[in-house]
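Holo prediction — zinc ion.
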Amino acid sequence: MLILGIETSCDETSAAVVKDGREILSIVVASSEELHKKTGGIIPENAAREQIKSILPVIEEALLKASSNFANPPSNLQHLTSNIDAIAVTVGPGLIGSLLVGVETAKTLSYLWKKPIVPVNHLIGHIYANFVREKLKVPQFPAVALVASGGHTDLVLLEKHGELKWLGGTLDDAAGEAFDKTARILGLGFPGGPAIAAAAAKLKIKNDLPAMLRKAMQAGKLKIKLPRPLLDRNNFDFSFSGLKTAVLREVQKNPLIYSPNGLMTCALAHEVQEAITDVLVEKTLFAVKKYKVPTLLICGGVAANFRLREKFQQKIFDLNLDLDFFVPPIHLCTDNAAMIAGAAYFLNEKLPWHKISANPQLHF
Ligand code: KG4
Ligand code: ZN
């Protein structure tokens, strides 16, 4: 089965053609990230305008790339579109202006090509980034999934395709949002996750710090210790908004030592990353142990974080857990249409175009 996926929930415009939910024949992602760097964050109207500019070229490129898999050029594109079985589109959650671009385009193509649409929840789409991996084994159920993105931090229990139980999530800021907001306070730019990770990587604390700073740190004068919110509670609630307040307070206390490229900024970025990843790993593995699942799937933009991936692997090893741990490659962690087409294949809820609408508030 061939599915054309379309994803436009935020600042990425993406289209992909996926075969049987596992094999990516093409994937194209256009991001308006550069534009949002100038404003230090996403302004929804700007994101929607960029979606409009990109959507048709992105879909065309994805179709052309996928059609190169078929014989008989130049009719192969026509051959491909006539062989597409369904169009999958993200219907929410996300920014309404951005979502509408993908949803209305999908409906138009569905009407013209006479193909059904599969509406996909973006959060569930992220989970299926772990399934569009033809070379790996298919994840087995039951599974715990951690969805950690710019707008969401959720833990869910998957019993089978289409049957999931929401275990818990953030009470305030999402993990990605915590990266983004603390990066902004530290003057590290947007998006914050990769910026914090890069700053943290510059630091090998003990060896690289100038002697004066090292002494001050050793004497406890510059000790940076951020909270690990809600770790002491045996539940699946997360809370990350306190981190940004703690970072702000720290910077306001010692403004002179936190220059955007300085070592102390890197030290604080390092601690931000440690705090967020500690909480994500602990809470997720608590869910794995409580529900005794054989499979753990992590996904969403924050799953691109190298330190998070490393910590999960280390902890699973240290605890000797009998667990299949799946994490998508970096380009499938952030928003993309291959995961949407993958989810559509496994969920298979085909609908006619007039039954589809965008829902920015959609949840699990
Ligand atoms: O899943 P995603 O692309 O979009 C949403 O659905 O929100 O996630 C974007 C989020 C942003 O907050 C970004 O800072 C974060 O993922 N992110 C990262 C990394 N790459 C992206 N966070 C930590 N480390 C990264 N390497
Ligand atoms: Zn996302």
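READOUT: The beta strands are 2-7, 12-19, 23-31, 86-92, 117-121, 143-148, 153-160, 163-169, 295-299, 324-326.
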